[in-house]
Amino acid sequence: MNEQQLKQQIRNENEAAEYNSKAQSTSLQEVSVYSAIGLRLAHDLTQIIPGQFKGRLFKKGHLITEEDIPKLLDIGKEHIYVMELGEHDLHEDEAARRMAQALMDDQLVLSEPHEGKVSVKSSVVGIAKIAKEIVDEVNRIGEIALATIRNNQAVMVNGQLAATRAIPLVVNKQKVELVEQIAKQYRAAHGAAPISVVALPQRQIGLLTTGSEVYNGRIKDKFGPAVKAKLEALGSIVAEQRFAPDDRDIIVREIRELVACGYDMIAVTGGMSVDPDDRTPGAIAASGAEIVSYGTPMLPGSMLLVGYIEGVPIVGLPGCVMHDPYTSFDVLLPRLLLGERIDKEDIVALGYGGLLGC
Ligand SMILES: Nc1nc2c(c(=O)[nH]1)N[C@H]1C(S)=C(S)[C@@H](COP(=O)(O)OP(=O)(O)OC[C@H]3O[C@@H](n4cnc5c(N)ncnc54)[C@H](O)[C@@H]3O)O[C@H]1N2
Ligand code: MOO
């Protein structure tokens, strides 16, 4: 090859490299909004008016018209992007969609991408099963985000479990492919998606409300309705409610009778703290229950008791369960209803992050 041929070859190679790099990398061109009429938006545009509105003002692909210009200026956009996606990149919407599809169980409902985010919702009342180690692994990749609720948290119909998003407007395809690979490996090893929901079965609960002031009619029972509401929200019912004064033998007898009825769970309310009239923990122990824990390191719900009596869960519910929407009882309830055994470590784990105030 003579010198000229060599130069030509280098020129060819350079041109090819330039062509390839154009084809491979995403080009983002800034265009003044005044020159943007007739162009299409490369991504959703958000408006925030504190206290009034937060949401999508313009959708990706929107054809910009003259009357959009003041609206764009009002949300601080003097320029927009015109984008040509490189072959190794994914648009934020596509990245979010693919990650959600890879990580989520089929039963879950995926939203359309909205401002670059895909939301994942439950179609049933259930308990979230979320592999924390996978969430961490995905979030370690960088430039992509996976946010979830906590493992074992209750979720309502249409309740959100997770959301995916790419941080930049375009993200390297390999990052999303890595998420897909991580999810595939998890599914192969566990036979389930890293993020899923298990529908809660309908359980029948036997409820015993203690407290002489309630038993004698001095005050109206407020515990029964509160416990019923919490259970019904999760698809279970209080099949029977009984009342007892602050008398240990009577409480023991009532517990035994509720156990004999074959309910799926027994709940005893009131009398859970330190006063001489607080007979419930002693009565639960005397009724033959194996106590996993009397007391939890979570506030509210520190005086909660969890045990098992002939294999049936029994809980002692302190006063706060009556008025507080989220206590240690609410944390453990979905698992109790599912039939998962609660052990001492589950109680220990309530302390970190468990100070919600009461
Ligand atoms: N010195 C301490 N005081 C308290 C402690 C403690 O460890 N040391 N613990 C606190 C915590 S935490 C809770 S929760 C409360 C209440 O615990 P109890 O489960 O023993 O609640 P009671 O004493 O039975 O009742 C408290 C309050 O609520 C009323 N009540 C009870 N049952 C009903 C019902 N079915 N309907 C309507 N109202 C009800 C009761 O009349 C009392 O007024 O203790 C803290 N204090
Ligand atoms: O058990 Mo109390 O139950 O923390 O407010």
TrEMBL record:
Keywords: Magnesium, Metal-binding, Molybdenum, Molybdenum cofactor biosynthesis, Transferase
Reactions catalysed, as given in the entry: adenylyl-molybdopterin + molybdate = Mo-molybdopterin + AMP + H(+)
Record InterPro entries: MoaB/Mog-like_dom_sf, MoaB/Mog_dom, MoeA-like
KW Magnesium (keyword) present: yes
Domain of life of the organism encoding this protein: Bacteria
E.C. number(s) listed in UniProt: 2.10.1.1
Domain MoaB/Mog: 206-339
SUPFAM superfamilies referenced in this protein's UniProt entry, alphabetically: Molybdenum cofactor biosynthesis proteins
Pathway of action: Cofactor biosynthesis; molybdopterin biosynthesis
Function: Catalyzes the insertion of molybdate into adenylated molybdopterin with the concomitant release of AMP.
Family: Belongs to the MoeA family.
Name of the molecule in the record: Molybdopterin molybdenumtransferase
Species whose genome carries this gene: Paenibacillus septentrionalis
